[in-house]
Specification:
alpha/beta; 8 helices
């Protein structure tokens, strides 16, 4: 039986909530809140790497970007608005249909596909940038998933990864508090054993010939009702990897 990165129970869970992807007060409210800080990070790092004007209307024009595990397209659409050629991939056909419908309504062009990282890599797809955001904690085989994502990064290209660390602090804040007390997320959204330590991402990144060039923690400030960068990577964190030119 071929190896797969797909955990069908995770696909089914997110498919069942697909109608709420674009509701800022629905089940994906935390992602809507998180979007500004992760978009700022992505835009800053891409523009620095490829010599683009960060304030330019089409700052990402000419760049081919993969949004793997794109869900309803919360990252794919902003990338397209900045001029990128975006491929959004998700194993859930339901999510992809929601994403396609919203892109049409927004008059944006995004190449949405119901597929997987391993299928894209097998087909020889490659990209200037791979967005691997809030996905690794939901796949069946983290090492295989990372290997296939790295495989699709072109020379000189970048990969962004965002996930939750496997620490007791994360168990308390990202699972118990977020799902059971504050009810920010549906119960069962995250499983502690599937959370991923930074070293578990760095190993397949380095094995692929890429280099980790930046890491940052991110935390939610309830007083400001917003996400911010932090030196603390014990809960949520983002990582940037680069393939030498």
């Amino acid at each position: 039986m071929p190896q797969t990165t797909i955990d069908q129970s995770e696909v089914d869970r997110f498919s069942a909530m697909a109608a709420e992807w674009w509701s800022p007060v629905g089940k994906f409210r935390p992602l809507h809140k998180f979007n500004p800080v992760r978009l700022a990070y992505i835009r800053e790092k891409i523009c620095a790497r490829f010599g683009r004007d960060i304030n330019g209307h089409n700052a990402l024009a000419g760049l081919r970007i993969l949004d793997i595990g794109c869900g309803g397209g919360l990252l794919s659409e902003p990338m397209a608005r900045m001029g990128a050629d975006v491929v959004g991939v998700d194993p859930s056909p339901v999510n992809i249909e929601v994403a396609r419908t919203h892109a049409r309504q927004s008059k944006l062009t995004v190449d949405y596909r119901a597929s997987t990282a391993e299928e894209l890599a097998e087909a020889g797809e490659n990209f200037d940038v791979v967005l691997n955001m809030e996905v690794v904690e939901h796949v069946a085989d983290v090492s295989l998933f990372m290997e296939k994502c790295c495989q699709m990064v072109r020379p000189g290209g970048l990969m962004f990864v965002a996930t939750i660390n496997r620490t007791q602090k994360a168990r308390m804040l990202a699972i118990f508090m977020a799902e059971n007390v504050l009810r920010w997320l549906p119960r069962g959204t995250h499983t502690y054993e599937k959370l991923v330590k930074p070293a578990e991402l760095e190993q397949p990144i380095l094995a692929s010939g890429m280099q980790v060039t930046d890491k940052t923690g991110v935390f939610f400030n309830p007083l400001l009702d917003s996400w911010n960068y932090s030196t603390d990577m014990d809960v949520n964190y983002m990582m940037l990897a680069e393939r030498p030119a």
